Amino acid sequence: xxxxxxxxxxxxxxxxxxxxxxxxxxxxxxxxxxxxxxxxxxxxxxxxxxxxxxxxxxxxxxxxxxxxxxxxxxxxxxxxxxxxxxxxxxxxxxxxxxxxxxxxxxxxxxxxxxxxxxxxxxxxxxxxxxxxxxxxxxxxxxxxxxxxxxxxx
Length: 153
Known about the structure:
With about 150 residues, the chain is mainly beta. The chain has a single domain (about 25-150), classed as Jelly Rolls (Sandwich), CATH 2.60.120. The chain has one helix and eleven strands, in the order αβββββββββββ. The strands form three sheets. The protein has a five-stranded antiparallel β-sheet, with no helix packed on it. Strands 3-9-5-6 form a four-stranded antiparallel β-sheet, with no helix packed on it.
């Protein structure tokens, strides 16, 4: 029985380590004030080693429960390994048309994942993505716990 458990554990860790080479995930918490300043541009860099797969680029947004805005304007600047730059401005929805929050909430913390690019081919090499917001009402976006980026097949 111990041998089976040991083999299953080893197989699990082997599979997890194989999968991790094809993924990227980084999450940045905001300061205690929960404010994402307009000047705070988040930068992420990751390598693609296998260009035979399709990838999803996912924006992660963690906010305080009952967020006051239905959507937030987010700017993505994506630079591919050849140096080509793509600018995307996306109004990331926080609530659906009926007013229901789209994030998964636990207590006062809500986590939203928004697919920026879905099932796209990425060339081998290093990618750089900058994320900022275009919130016009103030120099900061309030009640933000953190933001992040995930890339996975």
